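Troubleshooting log. The previous structure file for this entry was overwritten by mistake, so regenerating from the original sequence record. Sequence copied from the archived sheet and checked twice against the printout by T.R.
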Amino acid sequence: MDTTRLSAWQWRVVILGWVTYAAFYLGRVNLATALPAIEADLHWLPTDTGLLAGAMLWSYGIGQLINGWLGQYVDTRRMVFIGIAGSTVVNLIFAVSSSLPVMFALWLINGYLQSMAWGPILRTLSDNLEPGQRNRIAGVFGASYVVGNTLTWLLTGLLLTSGQWRLTFVVPPLLMFGVGLGWYTLTKPAKSTVHAARENILPGSMREVIRQTWPVLLTAIVAGALINGALLFAPTYAAQTLPVDQAALTAVIFPVSGLLGTVWLSSLVMRRVGGDVVQGLIVLLLISAAARALAVVLPPSTLVSVLLLAAMGVTSYALTNVLLTAVPLTIYAHLGTSVVAGLMDATHSLGGAVGSTLVGLLLLWGSWPLVFIVWTLLPLIAAVVISLVLRRAAAQRLSRQEGIL
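Regenerated output below.
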């Protein structure tokens, strides 16, 4: 009997969770495509743009810690719907705002509301699927944020052709709210805390979770800086380095190619390393560094820009998929899926907040080549640190064994 085969209800839960999380991006990455238009319309400096771009990631990271923990105990159906409804309202207010402090505050609030999705949705999957089934859908489920990001960029790109950037904070969020209604109507309340305790799926202490996962958390910080920096500034990079008629289409290559990284490269690397998560992350970090080094060694051209964005998309999303989907849903599920997912996403977002702010500063001080040099060094440093940690751990194990003998 195939123990990984999903029932009709299980497929319904997976599909609803997949579509709902993809829809959350309609109220999140709409800012990325609108940033150049906002900057031009409101006469902002790159540092202002970078500040706003990073605002969500700070509150999103804090929210992941809080909501990841809460998501292990409360009704995830209601929690996810509150997040999607609140984000819709914040986007609509943002659409009629022009003050940087006000818009910054609104996007901080939006970040917290957006953090009410990932951990609770993964817990819903964990509650309804067996371990083998979780392994089967991990890669496919990770594609939800890639597709959500890509479709949002395409929709907002079309809306921006009207010359009204404010529409990007009206139409996509209303669509997001419609999906949220479907989620609340078609899913069931999560298992109660008492039921979860009987099945031993409640989390241990946060200190214990961090102790067991800290090398992976380090990678999450770097991965967040890489993917969010590119995610938020890919449209700006394309607009500043390519002709106008090529910029919009070229920028979308980053998230589109991310789908390949999510469903193919992450799975390929994990198979090659025999399922060893830490070794897999080291390999993906090295590949990520090589992808970004293309900008340093190849002469600038439209072809190079396309190749560069595609390579970054594949590697960024592969790295992120292993961290945010496979790690909490499989390897560390015993620590509490929602808690681990929240912690991974929080550190990933922390890295993204620092990374997006750093890009704004680097663009003010220098140019895109400087940005790509930093993006190349970050994964190399992380890979070296994790490798040293592994070597030290191996040496300690060998020393203990010799002491016993």
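Residues 193-202 have pLDDT under 50 and may be disordered. Archived copy saved in two places this time.
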